[in-house]
Amino acid sequence: MTRVGTRDDKERLDTVIGANIQNERLQRNFSREEFAAILDLTTSHLSLIERGERGATIVTLERVVKACDVTIDSLFVDNRKVRSKSKTPQTQKANLYKTIKTLLLTLNENELEFFIHMLKGIPLCAKQTNKPHYFSCR
């Protein structure tokens, strides 16, 4: 019987997947605590996964896929050497949209209604205060 994978293959794959999970978390500006709560993991377990010291279960991978709106195969691609540290404004805006989407998925119906009501008030507050970057409307 021929062996398909080795321990080194598993360790390399755990490292790649962990780095990709961490990258997805950071792109969405989630703290480790926030992301662990979304994935229903402890913070220490998520930390071990991100460092490649523990393998992510298929359930955890499914939760990452849903939370980050990525494909599962993207978590298996080794992007560690080609990652760019500079972010374009378009990339930052896209990441903000992804973060908002992920957060919205965690809200119940009442919280969503409140959020929509709050969003509708932002232009009015900006107009009244002449300060479009502040959300303090008195």
Layout: helices, strands, pairs:
Blueprint: H1 7-27, H2 32-39, H3 43-50, H4 58-68, H5 89-104, H6 109-129
Helix pairs in contact: 2-3
Quick structural gist:
With 138 residues, the protein is mostly helical. The protein contains six helices and no strands. The chain has a domain at 7-86: Orthogonal Bundle (434 Repressor (Amino-terminal Domain)).
Describe the structure.
- This protein is mainly alpha-helical.
- The protein has a domain of 80 residues: 434 Repressor (Amino-terminal Domain) (Orthogonal Bundle).
- It is 62% helix and 0% strand.
- It contains six helices and no strands.
- Helix 2 packs across helix 3.
- The longest helix has 21 residues.
- The radius of gyration is 19 Å and the shape is elongated.
- The C terminus is likely disordered.
- What's the CATH first level of the domain at 7-86? Mainly Alpha
Low-pLDDT parts are: 132-138
**CATH superfamily (homologous) name of the domain at 7-86:** lambda repressor-like DNA-binding domains
Helix content estimate: 55-70%
Shape label: elongated
What's the main sheet like?
none
Listing every helix as H and every strand as E from the N terminus to the C terminus, the arrangement reads HHHHHH
What's the rounded overall pLDDT mean?
Answer: 81
